[in-house]
Model the fold of this input.
Amino acid sequence: MEWNVNQHSLIKNIPLILSSYHVKLEAMQKDCIYLDNNATTKVDPEVIEAMLPYLRDYYGNPSSMHTFGGQVGKAVRQAREQVAALLGADESEIVFNSCGTEGDNAAIRAALLAQPEKRHIITTQVEHPAVLNVCKQLETQGYSVTYLSVNRQGQLDLDELEASLTGNTALVTIMYANNETGTIFPIEQIGLRAKERGALFHVDAVQAVGKIPLNMKTSTIDMLTMSGHKIHAPKGIGALYVRRGVRFRPLLIGGGQERGRRAGTENVPGIVALGKAAELELFHIEEATTREKRLRHRLEQTLIATIAECEVNGDPTQRLPNTTNIGFKYIEGEAILLHLNKHNICASSGSACSSGSLEPSHVLRAMGLPYTILHGSIRFSLCRYTTEAEIDAVLSVMPSVVERLRALSPFKSDQANWLQQQEQALLIKS
Ligand code: PLP
Done:
């Protein structure tokens, strides 16, 4: 095939084009106001430093008998101690895996395999798809699942839980805190009720770890899921806490790694990173919680004071310190996000897994929010790196963004009619 002059010049210039693209990307990242930390977090520079030697130099297999592998095994043991310390658990109760989704899948399957005579599961309507979709699949395999409802603030009714528990309930699997609204569930009260009926209790704590102090020694939790990329470690590493004495059946079967609870050669750099990230979370938790709460309060209160017809979704007090989900009536959350994106502000309109779908959030729907708020809700999630100046930047652009979108909104002129139509459509759909 003959190449023309244009193609030749394009090929010649590829390194130049790529490097200018990287320069642009870097500049964008530097300027970016990242308020989407419930989707994922920046890897802490100390975490990168800690993991690099295990990518570059110490590549041995931690199961090997030789000293080279032994050094790596030592690093894995240290990381296990660091993660256990963050959870208030024993090292032997930590099972490293690949992510929160794997932890949720493994815990649910393990609980059912360990009690084959029981066929009932209790969860909530507002879980992450990593739990909800497993439960839906289990329903096709003969299990019955109770999906507990939530109220307008996203809170559970403990009486409904109690009425749902039976001797046939194998597992109660409920998230610690909701990824979209930050609402925190009364985990220990739920656990006590599950224990009274002899059910195992799994908690998806992917959003809670590092934001809420945890102590598995005094907890009713049997299994707890966490994920590295939500706590400033890289993607592709997570851990499942399994209480000593809980019968566990592994999801992955193969070698004897992780005491036979998760086969496969360990992701050593990821494990070292998770250990370091856990140590840093524990170190920063108190100060970060206070700071994030203060910044979030200012963000929420100023938005409410300066923009008409907007409100905070979720429990006003039982809420993660870093999360705010705010509904702006009569406009589309996606449109707000596009405008914010032009100002280099990253937020989200729900869980990262379902973004791109035009379906309103299943969490906000379960809370029974009116259609006007359901569609116009966005989430800001902070972290320990969030600055006062970043909050100022959001506050300076939000009023004009909302005003512009409302001016264009077709719903303003005939709101009542529109609302009725939409709610009717929703009823037909569900
Ligand atoms: N559970 C919750 C509550 C989450 O927020 C997420 C991710 O957003 C997950 C589970 C899945 O975790 P991962 O992305 O590590 O698979």
User: Anything to note?
Assistant: The longest strand covers residues 169-175. The two ends are 57 Å apart (CA to CA). The pocket of pyridoxal-5'-phosphate is lined by residues 99-101, 104, 128, 130, 175, 179, 204, 206-207, 227, 229, 238, 351-352 (CB under 6 Å). The chain has 13 helices and twelve strands.
